[in-house]
Specification:
221 residues; mainly alpha; 9 helices
Length: 221
């Protein structure tokens, strides 16, 4: 599938900026379809929303919708692809699992990652709400895909911890596999609390508490 990136004003935009007016109009309509679908999903529920509802809100025909998406389920796949691509991009270079060589570098890395993930997962709350509270009830294939993302998050976090143990700045007796699962649980809980209470100071305070646990709870004394 084609990967996308999220911006402040819409859920998905194309990574490569459209170069012609026609391409820009197509990209804009694609964004409008996704945003309108999210509104319909929120108001009616995913299963009760039909293609006719999305097309009707936009004033377009069914044929126009199908030129961009195979069905309404395809929209969710694109949202997940975009989310995964943004997270992977945030974890590159200086934030890669093997980038830190000391506890101080690990601490700075955790701070950068925390800021990046908060921006990705909280900036459009509809995405997090859909994936955390609604998507697992859509179909078995999507449920399996979301569990796969959870497993990937666990494995990635374990890689950071394994690297720290190997270099000696994290505790040598650390159970990296289960600690990684606990970290994923904290991050998911942080997202839920951020959705419930969008106060910026509250989110910042919770993120700081999580980051302290990620350092002080696993560092070598």
């Amino acid at each position: 599938m084609t990967h996308h990136s999220v911006c402040d004003d819409c859920i998905i935009v194309k990574v490569t900026k459209p170069s012609t007016r026609a391409e820009r109009r197509k990209a804009e309509l694609r964004q409008d379809i996704i945003d309108t679908a999210f509104v319909c999903f929120a108001e009616k529920g995913y299963h009760a929303t039909g293609i006719a509802d999305i097309a009707g809100e936009l004033g377009i025909g069914h044929g126009t919708f199908y030129r961009y998406f195979s069905n309404k389920r395809d929209i969710i796949d694109h949202v997940i692809d975009d989310l995964a691509a943004r997270i992977i991009a945030a974890l590159g270079t200086d934030n890669a699992p093997d980038a830190a060589t000391s506890l101080d570098e690990y601490r700075a890395q955790i701070d950068r990652i925390g800021v990046a993930l908060t921006g990705i997962l909280i900036e459009d709350r509809r995405v997090a709400q859909l994936l955390l509270f609604h998507a697992t009830g859509i179909d078995d294939e999507l449920t399996a895909r979301l569990y796969g993302l959870l497993d990937t998050a666990d494995s990635l976090t374990a890689a950071y911890l394994d690297h720290g143990v190997e270099l000696g700045y994290l505790r040598p007796d650390l159970d990296t596999r289960n600690t990684a699962r606990a970290v994923t649980g904290m991050l998911l809980a942080g997202i839920v609390h951020g959705l419930r209470d969008p106060d910026e100071a509250a989110i910042k305070g919770l993120n700081e508490a999580i980051r302290r646990l990620l350092v002080d709870g696993v560092r070598k004394d």
